[in-house]
């Protein structure tokens, strides 16, 4: 059974995944972790500098010099891991203590208005956990762009006359009935109570900010 909880363990998983994807979560939210990473970099540089400064030294003598530097590097790495776990536990506890998800308004392209999550680690991790829950429960996966382009290329080069029509749904997000969406959420048997709660809070916050009580959902949530 999928663990959908907003726990320190799940937030740590989110943290690791997002960093592997190239998003610097530390720089966005956690200056203490930025500083911890800097100390690791400095400790690693000290090991390399010692090796370079003692080229040709016998292995035993070199190890005497490198040992304390390596231990310092290990200590900094361990300290960062502990700090990450402590940080995730603190965020999870704040969420557990009754954090309310509220959107903020900002300007988007072409003078559109976006309603998005605030620059705060709590809604960030809540949002990413909900994304994970929905993706895993409903097996959602974006199509392979290379495969799509290849299929389209083959289709357009089959010798038949082709017409391309570019269309778009006008105000798609604004046309969604939130009341119907909430009913669908309530009837859903897969999503956890917590996931539903925060989705409803986001929808409710959108209604308050946009002053449109029935229709429309937020666009721009990350």
Tell me what you see in this structure:
This is Reverse transcriptase domain-containing protein. With 222 residues, the protein is mainly α. It folds into 2 domains: 98 residues, no CATH class; 122 residues, no CATH class. The protein has 8 helices and 2 strands; from the N terminus they run ααααββαααα. β1 and β2 form a beta hairpin. α1 crosses α4, α1 packs across α5 and α3 packs antiparallel against α4.
User: Helix and strand string, N-terminal first?
Assistant: HHHHEEHHHH
Report the strand count.
2
Count up the helices: 8
Q: Radius of gyration in whole Å, from Cα?
A: 25 Å
**Largest beta-sheet characterization:** 2 strands, antiparallel
Q: In order across it, which strands form the biggest sheet?
A: 1-2
Protein name: Reverse transcriptase domain-containing protein
Organism: Sphingobium olei
Q: Which terms summarize this structure?
A:
222 residues; mainly alpha; two-stranded antiparallel ribbon
